Amino acid sequence: MTHATDGLPARAVGLQLDRIADELADRFHGVFGRETVELFVRETYDLLAEHATVTVHLPALTARFARERLLDLGRAEGLTQVTVPQVLFLCVHNVGRSQMAAALLDHHAFGRVTVRSAGSQPQGEIPEIITAALRELHVPLEAAYPKPLTDEVLRASDVVVTMGCGDACAIYPGKRYLDWDIPDPAGEPLHVVRRIRDEIDRHVRGLLDELSNQP
After folding, report:
1. Cα 103 to chain center, whole Å?
2. Alpha carbons 1 and 42: distance in angstroms, whole number
3. DSSP H/E element including 45
4. Is the pTM of this model over 0.90?
5. pLDDT in tens, 108-163
6. Record's Gene3D superfamilies (predicted)?
7. What is the DSSP letter of 4?
């Protein structure tokens, strides 16, 4: 089911999703058929709409997230060439720890790792204090948004790092699972968020060193 966004009727949303499906079908030509792409686009829109507090940007976020999901599906199914390891960071709401970890790893890796993040119960928006703490390290987070955990991202990831999400993460053989015991920055003042940021950064740098030294 496709819901209307703020200020847009359902028919207009449907036309936008058709356009997104057309663009992604061209992008994934020879990998996925148009029907598969359209299914993912509409499912992605509904997944994001289910937890969104502001829906006016949903079509644009749908285009980004659907593209990531199709990339992950292609990777998981062996339909696309894999050249670097993929790391998934998972917490509850995907607005704090997992977003910081993903941004920091992407910043340090310079393309040597594919990075994803998700939430077992995504909701809300990334607090400005989280964005500000990363901005101090010249790590951008303004374009990030909370995303739900999906099956294909788990299947595509080589390393899954959980941070306080309980048993929400399915276990797939052949993957490395890590649990980082890191405090939740929600509601904390900036000096505490900085300490959490720096702790995550130490973990991220250590993981990157391990991945870089693997044959």
Report:
1. 10
2. 8
3. helix 34-51
4. yes
5. 999 999 999 999 889 889 999 999 999 999 999 989 999 999 999 999 999 999 99
6. 3.40.50.2300, Corynebacterium glutamicum thioredoxin-dependent arsenate reductase, N-terminal domain
7. P
